[in-house]
Automatic annotation (TrEMBL):
<feature type="domain" description="Sulfatase-modifying factor enzyme-like">
    <location>
        <begin position="145"/>
        <end position="372"/>
    </location>
</feature>
<dbReference type="GO" id="GO:0120147">
    <property type="term" value="F:formylglycine-generating oxidase activity"/>
</dbReference>
<dbReference type="InterPro" id="IPR051043">
    <property type="entry name" value="Sulfatase_Mod_Factor_Kinase"/>
</dbReference>
<protein>
    <submittedName>
        <fullName>Formylglycine-generating enzyme family protein</fullName>
    </submittedName>
</protein>
<dbReference type="InterPro" id="IPR005532">
    <property type="entry name" value="SUMF_dom"/>
</dbReference>
<dbReference type="InterPro" id="IPR016187">
    <property type="entry name" value="CTDL_fold"/>
</dbReference>
<dbReference type="Pfam" id="PF03781">
    <property type="entry name" value="FGE-sulfatase"/>
</dbReference>
<dbReference type="InterPro" id="IPR042095">
    <property type="entry name" value="SUMF_sf"/>
</dbReference>
Length: 375
């Protein structure tokens, strides 16, 4: 169906009505959903709504689909075609292919002569950092640093230095081996988010060098897809294992409780040091702080303890004792991992092994993101 009707469906989504009716009679809700998907870039949200229904009211297919398409790195036309293929495969078991219908996906415009032309892709400039394998990425008016992290093996979870504040979800300690990767020196700033998305969702906006906040995991996936489209690079969220390894300092780790120190005041903004004034009733007011304002950790990475909880790619799940190589967490779930603590969290929540979780569509003023890049 996709290979035959793909172009027509994209140009005239109403054509899908009869096709879907033939395949899935009685599934009116599903037909409406997937007709809209072809003209709205909101698939991850729509499918996520279905996936949030109680397990006994939906097949596991929808949970997988929500995850798959929220992470997809493609444009609306190809997106729509893949949706139809996935829907058919999920409900009937029939495998469809979109080969032969992957037309140019960039929007078209018309030049002065009336000829159709593609809009030019914005490309980032990438500069090496002298004396290291780090990179500086310039996109429009926004600039950010990516830190090289050498691959290695470490003990993940509540190791001895974490003390009595370690929670049960940080255990058991287990061995993890990771390939090399890159990670953002700072969390994504409001300036970079504005450059890519054209708007700033942050609560209590304070300026371009402040971390963007009040973004959901789904928002982050949309941002990353658009960033990748504009740069030609393949950014992503870090896995939970990558995040902890980088926070610990990688192969340069000195075994600190926090990211770069045993003293949280040196490396992070948290509940006891991130308030600046009181309101009329005498209550403390907490807020996010400028990126990079505290001491960096052993790898030169800032703010991995405190300031904002940072979304990871993984579904939240329990640890076990098995050794892992490049783990990516559970295959499915209801919540995504966040790491690092935040400006209103107690110090214990800002330790390098502390874990928390939120459902993917939640956005709060203490939720942000940090980019990662495979090598």
């Amino acid at each position: 169906m996709v290979s035959v009707y793909g172009r027509e469906i994209y140009r005239n989504p109403d054509r899908l009505k009869n096709l879907m009716g033939d395949l899935f009679s009685g599934e009116e809700r599903i037909k409406r959903l997937f007709r809209r998907v072809l003209v709205e870039d909101k698939l991850s949200v729509k499918v996520y709504e279905i996936a949030q229904k109680p397990a006994n009211e939906r097949p596991p297919f929808y949970t997988r689909l929500a995850c798959q398409f929220a992470e997809a790195d493609c444009r609306p036309m190809e997106f729509g075609l893949e949706v139809v293929a996935a829907l058919v495969a999920g409900l009937t078991g029939e495998k469809l292919t979109t080969s032969g219908v992957r037309q140019p996906l960039r929007p078209e415009s018309t030049d002065k002569a009336g000829q159709k032309t593609r809009k030019r892709k914005i490309l980032a400039q990438v500069f090496p950092v002298s004396g290291s394998r780090n990179k500086i990425v310039q996109l429009g008016q926004a600039k950010f640093d990516m830190v090289y992290v050498e691959g290695g093996t470490f003990r993940m979870g509540a190791t001895e230095e974490q003390g009595e504040e370690a929670k049960s979800n940080e255990r058991p300690v287990h061995e993890v081996s990771l390939a090399e990767f890159m990670i953002g020196q700072c969390t994504v700033t409001q300036a970079l988010w504005m450059e890519v998305m054209g708007k700033n969702p942050s609560l209590g906006k304070r300026g371009g060098n402040y971390p963007v906040n009040k973004v959901s995991w789904i928002d982050c996936q949309k941002f990353i897809r658009r960033l990748n489209s504009q740069t030609g690079l393949k950014f992503r969220l870090p896995t939970e294992a990558e995040w902890e390894y980088a926070a610990r300092g990688g192969k340069k780790s000195k075994g600190y409780r926090y990211a770069g120190s045993d003293n949280p005041d040196r490396v992070g903004w948290y509940k006891e040091n991130s308030w600046e004034k009181c309101d009329a009733e005498g209550n403390r007011l907490w807020h996010v702080h400028e990126a990079g304002g505290k001491k960096a950790n052993e790898l030169g990475i800032f703010d991995m303890s405190g300031n904002l909880w940072e979304w990871c790619q993984d579904w939240a799940g329990d640890y076990d004792t098995r050794a892992r190589t490049d783990p990516k967490g559970d295959l499915t779930g209801s919540a995504r991992v966040v790491r690092g603590g935040c400006f209103r969290a107690v110090a214990g929540r800002c330790r390098v092994t502390a874990r928390w979780e939120y459902v993917p569509d939640q956005s709060r003023d203490f939720l942000g993101l940090r980019l990662a890049l495979s090598l």
